[in-house]
Specification:
single chain; 46% helix; 7-stranded mixed β-sheet; 14% strand; alpha/beta; two-stranded antiparallel ribbon
């Protein structure tokens, strides 16, 4: 029973929600300290004051700290996130709504895009997810809202999606050719695309080509692949490589990636890449966020995100585990 909106990117989806639910001048948003800059920037762009809350060592919300902020700021909205599908937000959402039922709750479900039926909470007012990276489409994000958005949505931008498709095609070719020229070309095109998205100049609709690509996607198949890959990789690394608590909680959904915890993040990321495993850093934090939450700062400086999505099969996961064990445990 939700209105569904498809937009160009996760950043613009958050900007749309920030504009849609803004009722006061300089409203306050509470959000987790462990977050990407592209999560808080849309709200700041829309005139919100952002205040960070703390997380526990298992990535769930520090409820006592959240309650203190609710009392201090009486915020207009709170942003939540179920990190990696292991950090349920139900208790936090209940505390927020019990404190003041008129506070808007926005959940970023980018880590649970294909598990929305499992995690859906009626008390959450907006669900927002980027779908570009999770399903490999050229652009796209989704908003589930109680009512139709009252936000001006510009038509999709000519050329943006075409350029992204070309870049993704070249990236695919590079997997076979290892051509340095192709690599530099697709990296340059992808960087330009990110620069366009970083401007936050307006909210744009999803492109027709991304809409067609989404129509060909089987969510159940993707969820199954991610779930099995996660179980497989965890079983191979368990007891040998550090991971956040409660990774098994992600098995019921469609996990986003497998986070591992390492000592020398930069060196291990570089060495893994040299061996064909591309692990992202989630995420560099602002100084303010790092000051607020030492757990978030620790994750930011020690965590690497290992891909376990539908591009990989059983043998790929075996190879990936062997590389990780060789690099991380030596």
């Amino acid at each position: 029973g939700r209105e569904i909106s498809y937009l160009r990117s996760g950043r613009e989806a958050l900007l749309a929600v920030a504009l849609d639910c803004k009722q006061d001048e300089n409203p306050v948003l509470l959000m987790p300290a462990y977050c990407c800059w592209s999560m808080n920037a849309p709200f700041e762009k829309a005139g919100w004051d952002v205040v960070y809350y703390r997380l526990n060592t298992d990535l769930t919300v520090d409820l006592s700290y959240l309650e203190m902020l609710l009392e201090r700021y009486n915020p207009s909205a709170v942003l939540t996130m179920n990190f990696f599908g292991i950090a349920s937000t139900c208790q936090a959402v209940n505390r927020i709504k019990e404190f003041n039922s008129s506070i808007t709750v926005i959940e970023d479900f980018s880590h649970c895009t294909f598990s929305i039926k499992d995690i859906f909470n009626e008390r959450i007012d907006y669900y927002v997810s980027s779908i570009r990276k999770s399903v490999g489409v050229c652009d796209g994000s989704i908003i589930l809202s109680r009512e139709k958005l009252c936000v001006s949505v510009n038509p999709y931008t000519e050329g943006f999606s075409d350029s992204r498709v070309t870049a993704q095609s070249l990236k695919g070719q590079y997997a076979y050719s290892k051509s340095e020229e192709e690599k530099q070309t697709f990296l340059s095109m992808l960087r330009k695309g990110e620069e366009t998205l970083n401007q936050f100049d307006a909210v744009h609709a999803i492109s027709p080509i991304a809409t067609r690509m989404l129509g060909l996607i089987n969510g159940a198949t993707i969820a199954y692949a991610r779930r099995e890959n996660m179980k497989h990789l965890v079983s191979l690394l368990k007891g040998k490589v550090r991971m956040p608590e409660n990774m098994h909680l992600s098995y019921d959904g469609a996990p986003f990636s497998l986070p591992i915890i390492v000592n020398d993040q930069a060196l291990i990321q570089k060495t893994l890449a040299e061996n064909g495993v591309y692990a992202a850093v989630l995420w560099p934090l602002s100084e303010e966020a790092g000051r607020v939450c030492e757990n978030s700062l620790y994750f930011s400086e020690h965590m690497l995100s290992i891909p376990i999505d539908q591009r990989y099969n059983w043998d790929d996961i075996e190879d990936m585990a062997n590389i990780i064990l060789k690099v991380v445990t030596k």
